[in-house]
UniProtKB/TrEMBL annotation, chain A:
Highest taxon of the lineage: Bacteria
The UniProt record lists the keyword Manganese: no
Family as reported in the entry's similarity comment: Belongs to the ABC-4 integral membrane protein family. LolC/E subfamily.
Compartment(s) where it occurs, according to its Swiss-Prot or TrEMBL record: Cell membrane
Topology term for the membrane: Multi-pass membrane protein
Domain ABC3 transporter permease C-terminal: 270-402
Membrane-spanning parts: 270-291, 323-342, 375-396
Identification of the protein by name: ABC transporter permease
InterPro entries to which the protein is assigned, alphabetical: ABC3_permease_C, Lipoprotein-release_system, MacB_PCD
Keywords for the protein's UniProt record, in alphabetical order: Cell membrane, Membrane, Transmembrane, Transmembrane helix
Transferase as UniProt keyword: no
Naturally occurring in which organism (per UniProt): Desulfuromonas versatilis
UniProtKB/TrEMBL annotation, chain B:
Family the UniProt entry places it in: Belongs to the ABC-4 integral membrane protein family. LolC/E subfamily.
Transmembrane regions listed in the UniProt entry: 21-43, 267-290, 311-339, 373-392
Topology with respect to the bilayer: Multi-pass membrane protein
InterPro entries according to UniProt: ABC3_permease_C (IPR003838), Lipoprotein-release_system (IPR051447), MacB_PCD (IPR025857)
Name of the protein in question: ABC transporter permease
Cell membrane recorded as keyword: yes
Domain ABC3 transporter permease C-terminal: 268-398
Record's keyword terms, sorted: Cell membrane, Membrane, Transmembrane, Transmembrane helix
Domain MacB-like periplasmic core positions: 17-237
Compartments reported by the entry: Cell membrane
Superkingdom of this protein's organism: Bacteria
Provenance organism: Desulfuromonas versatilis
Pfam families, sorted: FtsX, MacB_PCD
Keyword Transmembrane helix recorded: yes
Amino acid sequence: MNYLSLAWKNLWRNRRRTLITLAAMSLSLMLVQAFHNLSAGVYRQMVNSGVRAGSGHIAVYRGDYVRSRDEKLSFAEAGLAGRLAAIPEVEGVLPRVYLPGLAQSSRESRGILLTGVDPAAELSVNPFLKQLAAEDMLPSTEGREAILGARLVKELKIARGNKFVVTVQKRGGELQSELLRVHGVVKTGIKEIDGGLVMVGRERAAAMGGIPGQVHEIAVILDDPEADRRVFPRVEALIADQPELRALPWEEAMLNLANAIKLDYASQKFIFVIILLIVTIGVVNTLLMSVMERMREFGVILAIGASPLRLAGMIMAEATLLGVLSMIFGTLLGSLATWYLVRYGIDLRALISENLEYGGVVFDPILRAIWDVPWMLRIAWYVAGLCLAASLYPALKAARLAPVEAMRHV
Amino acid sequence: MLLTLATRNIWRNKRRTLLTLSAMVVSSSLLMLSLGIFSGMLMDILASATEQYHGHVVVSRSGYQDERDMFLNIADEPQLLARLAASPGVVGASPRLRAFGLLSRGNNTYPAEILGIEPGRERQVTHLDHKLIAGSYLPDDAGRQVVIGRGLAEKLGATPGDEVVFVTQAADGSIGNDLLTVSGIFETGDAGHDNALVMAELAWLQEVMVLPGRLHEVALSVADPRLADAAAADLAARLPADFEVLDWGRLLPEMREVIASYDVSRMILVVILYSATGLGILNTFFMSVLERTREFGILMAMGMKPWKLRAMVLLETLVMGLLSLAAGITLGLLLTWYMQAVGIDLSGYLTPVTYAGGTILPRLSAVFEAKNIWVPALILLATCLLAGYLPARRAARLRPVEAIREN
């Protein structure tokens, strides 16, 4: 007996029920695939922006600086940035100095983070500086020019070209104050940056902190985020002669961002489980209905000699076909939806009041998907597998029928 | 008569009916659970942002929240606080003065934001008192005692009982400074606050800043944070024009962005849930009626009118729908309650997440919300009525002979 052709015929004996079940399964599969790809796209965008402004895909720190942010944990740069930049697949290397301090104008004072950078490297990589014109970038690593967050400039009641004082603590413990000039203003849409950023040349910051030639962080930006597995060992090799230094992947250096993504993904997976449960119930119901309405027929088949196993196999063949069909249709639809989301995305600006200003730098208001084909195929097979699993109970019921009672069934 | 016939029909084929009901019960309860989890996640995000520092609504002088200008202040008047606290929906009000300066201990000096509060009132708005990891919260007559963030404490090497020095620029242009005693240390998970925030007594800070009888803001807590914008608008209408009333949406634009993108995610998932559930129920009810076409044919042959047939089927469907929804709602509530009380702990795999001004604990939980129960119930009831009606209408249009011959 050809199970598949018989199963195919049986499915279409009740075209309407089969089509509704296919629609439920295919539609759910499509939306789950599209949603996953959208989430993956959003996560990737978050990571790309985050690592460029923060730790890079790989970061070099001394000791547990990543957690404590203790500015005593600085280390000599000594050409390390150049050696890191020479590694293939490295897009940029950003050595940075971080010193908490107090910024003062004649009217106000504010806690700030004095950030020392290499201007040329930072400008080309850091998304916070995307809207900064080249002439507004710091001209050197030693000058008294500073780039401030927009909110900080406003709060101190100063403007471009004005002078202000920054006080930080030197390595030896005494306070060091310097007069700086506002050279550029950035607006990122992130309150902490806009309200607390003072960016100066790296050597100026290090000198103020009493640690000339030293840095707190070296952020390594990669051409391709997937390259971290190849580049990481080479970074570790370059710092192997300094045991106190540690290389960290961004997931550890930016634990907060990594955890935000994990938390979101965990809740998403939970909801997906519920969705698949609901779909499974629909399939079980469909197959049970199908079995129950054919009791008499099964009775006749059993009476003329079919084995219960064969009957169960026939039902499972029907479920398999149903699963494969919905897998195919669902994935095709999911691909269409993903194509749309990759090309056009979802524009959040249509959902938010117009007066809400965007940083335009860190948070892209258009959510875009990426293609995660392996995952799409995996979930499609899960759905087909669920369909088969859903058929076990109906098949069992059918196999247990007593022929005489079954034939008597209306 | 029709009702009697309908209820009798329901139980004539127990197996089919139970099968139909169970599908609807399980589907509807899972749908309600999912919606409860979405609400739970949203409330977690909101609570973390607004209940650790900001409050739900903030009243201040126009421009203060934008500029943090120490001269943009308001009078510290008992009747102002009383009016704010008595406003509809407001459950707590806390007066505050804010200063920025340097905090020192030994050889270590760090910038700090000092928030002057009245501890008893501040507890109504924020829950920093639940975030202490050492020492104790400010007593009502704190004097020169302060509570500081963990990161700041570590950098200063300070523990409860230690003395620290605060230096700032006062309103009269002088250098204000004083010796303070650390009463407790808090940790919120938000590095910005943990590394720089100090909580002190309002009266003491007013004196140091030479701003006697003045406040920078009054932070309010409202019963339902999602209605904070309405509460803010209501308050703004009743305060003088130079006052500014901001809800959390305008205080924390990043949080609004996060919630907007979250709303998109939720919308997509809700569409999935409703379509999967709806199609499943449509299939179930549709087929359970469709397979009785022959039976309907016989009824019509015996003289039942087509409209009575449709009415009978609708009644059957309505009764089954109500029964299954009653059970589904019960199960949905139980599941939601379980997720609310117990939840799923992810802390073995995540640490708290600081996100757009708030800190979210690594836990999946749900929140009960009436709308998450009655909206899906109505939609699913409408779905099964539609599913029952269509095949019955089709059967009713058949001539009895054709109907009997079918199947």
